[in-house]
Amino acid sequence: MTRNTPHILVVDSNNATLKYIEFTLTGIGYKSTLAKDGLEAIEKAKNQHFDLIISDIYLPLMSGNDLVRLIRKTPEYRLTPFIFLSDNNEEETWIQNLNDGADDFITKPFKQEVFISKIKAHIKKTQIRKEITDSSIKNKLNFDKGNIVYCTPKDIKFKLPQQYLKTPIKHVHSDKELFTCLRKEQVWRIMIDDNATWAISILDKISKTIEGLIPIDILISDCRDTEKFDYLLTNHIDSFLYKQLDERLIIHQINSSIQQELNLKNKYFNALNTAAKQSPIRFENQYNEDISDFNIQVIHQAYNKLAGGDFYETFSVDSQKKIIVIGDVMGKKWDAWFFVPAYIAYIRSTINFFLSREEFDFIKSPGKFLKIINQSIFKDLKLSEVFTTLSIVTVCSQTSKVSIASAGALQPLFYNAKENKLTQLNIVGTLLGVIPDAHYLSLIQNFNQGDKLLLYTDGYIEAVNDRTGNMIGDEVFLESIHQIMGKASIHLSDIEYQLIHSLNISKFDDDRTLFLVQKN
């Protein structure tokens, strides 16, 4: 893939800092845009595409934390790396920054080589993440889920007859609708009416966001408008469709291009499916074990019986101690599955090595294990290019304690039986392999009778409610299972049943894993 020059937005009220960072980024071949406050940054982000955002925490008009929260509400910047600059070294501040949506932080005054190293690491991860995510979207095999996104003015004059197209067409009337659709929907093609000035004005941003992985067609009203043609040709346009043509010809062009992509997908389907089935890595769909008065359960469901990126592994320390790791390689199906065996190999060998040597206590410091794994992954040229979340949970029935450490995973849920309260635990951490010196916190949770800990992967929260058409999300997920978590003893199949029926989920579009620890 041909990559564009990375474009970075830098936000700081200090002009000297802005210029120094601009000089540094120029020196490594990166393009930068400068903003002196959060409002200016938001305005620039509306009209341009940025691969990374750097911001000071203390800004005029709005704080850096307010800025990152607003940025994360913008669909196209939901996954864009956001790095804070700060002279505050307090751990609580770092945790707050991460919880608000930041990916990393650089303390002031910073050394230029450290700054460059972190920026390059995040840019590299961004490029790989786009390749994995966009390739995953492009290569979904469920043809009936594909959409043509049609960017139109609000007063639509030229319409395409849905009944003759081989895939549904979705009309969007603003940049927010477009980028939301690109994030949530399976998009086969983007069509832009040349009268949709809102889309034409940000054509460069659209092109850079999708990086050529989704074809863009322009519907032209007047083929003699050479000025408009000259502008459009400066962007990545796959084809021009002329409104003056017979409607049947336009429909034929669209359907032919879609059929070509479908044929290409089908060509590789059988070969990939065979490879997945022959893998030596197997995960049981259900796992259930009692350790004294603790019960441990796992439900692992592949997407449509195809291999995916979710994985888990259990390790016995002794009769009263258990270690469980749960991970998720970013991507869908085979894109993610190909990397799972390598991760499992790293994890198995590292845990078994330290268990045999008894060098540190996994119960007290699971975060140390993540630090060791992260350093190994960072040095691996292939694995360091893949985003992976990993949680490690250790259970000790003797002390009634459960320890948790997280590398970019979703925040686990803890049910306190005494207070009848279900909350998300504040345990976060950098994704594996992003930076070599990542620090991972260990959370030690005391367990009383009836207490429960639940971990889950994004296959659940990214499912869609058939009735509303909305993605489930963390808050709805939590609300849906609150009542069932209050039962004295539960089974994970009860949670799945509750989610499917209360949230109107007819199918899941990704592999998914649930992990439960409860004290009986």
From TrEMBL:
Keywords annotated in UniProt: Phosphoprotein
Location of 4-aspartylphosphate modifications: 56
The keyword Phosphoprotein appears for this protein: yes
GO-annotated biological processes: phosphorelay signal transduction system
Stretches assigned to the Response regulatory domain: 7-123
Superkingdom as given in the UniProt entry: Bacteria
Pfam family, one: Response_reg
UniProt protein name: Fused response regulator/phosphatase
Species, as recorded: Ancylomarina euxinus
Lineage of the species this protein comes from: Bacteria, Pseudomonadati, Bacteroidota, Bacteroidia, Marinilabiliales
